[in-house]
Amino acid sequence: MDDRTFRNAMGKFATGVTVITAALNGEVRGMTANAFMSVSLDPKLILISIGEKAKMNEIIKQTGKFTVNILSEEQQDLSMLFAGQLKEKQNVTFDWVGDQPVLPNSLANILCDVYNTHVAGDHTLYIGKVTDIYMKDGDPLLFFEGKYRNLASHANAG
Ligand code: FAD
Ligand code: NAD
């Protein structure tokens, strides 16, 4: 099977969009990710999947911590920035909860300690134990068939 067929099929699964944030020696990195799921209620666990080439791997391995920031529909530019889809670099201001950076104005900031890792093909699965959560009201940024969407566009489309 070719890669495009696989990606097209996976793209049929509509998701939200997150930015994973982590910091090493006070320097913050962000990375856009839609491979995110809730795993367990007791204990409270979530899962993310990060490609082997992503710089984020090294930071999470060294710090053992990361935050999943669930994006609102107003944050598409941040998704594009942290996916390397914008030509121009931008300065982003982060908030801090202790030593963990979080993206302000996200629908949710889910702070995690690494609970377990598993290398799966060309990605590493990180199971995070949730240590803290912050939430805001708003509509989500969506990703479907390789394109950004929002709830309103589909409601209007009938
Ligand atoms: P880098 O290439 O180091 O950084 C990515 C970009 O963020 C760069 O342009 C960098 O300049 C910018 N950046 C980083 N930190 C800062 C900062 N502090 N201030 C300002 N700019 C900063 N990949 C996966 O592995 N798993 C997924 O689940 C996944 N889901 C995705 C979902 C969507 C909708 C999209 C568009 C992409 C997804 N990707 C996913 C791809 C992933 O986002 C990119 O491959 C990413 O750029 C690679 O991450 P990196 O750690 O190498 O980041
Ligand atoms: P796309 O058509 O590549 O993505 C559709 C779906 O395919 C994604 O939602 C994801 O489920 C899956 N997918 C895509 N690339 C993958 C990969 N390398 N490993 C595992 N699953 C993958 O959408 P696009 O707009 O062309 O994506 C933009 C960029 O972001 C591409 O370079 C893509 O590879 C990357 N991306 C990576 C992941 C991931 O690593 N899990 C997820 C989404 C997008």
TrEMBL record:
Keyword Oxidoreductase: yes
Flavin reductase like domain: residues covered: 10-150
Entry-linked InterPro entries: Flavin_Rdtase-like_dom, NADH-dep_flavin_reductase, Split_barrel_FMN-bd
UniProt keyword Nuclease, yes or no: no
EC number: 1.-.-.-
This protein's UniProt keywords: Oxidoreductase
Top-level EC class: oxidoreductase
Stored SUPFAM superfamilies: FMN-binding split barrel
GO molecular function: oxidoreductase activity
Name assigned to this protein: Flavin reductase family protein
Organism: Aeribacillus composti
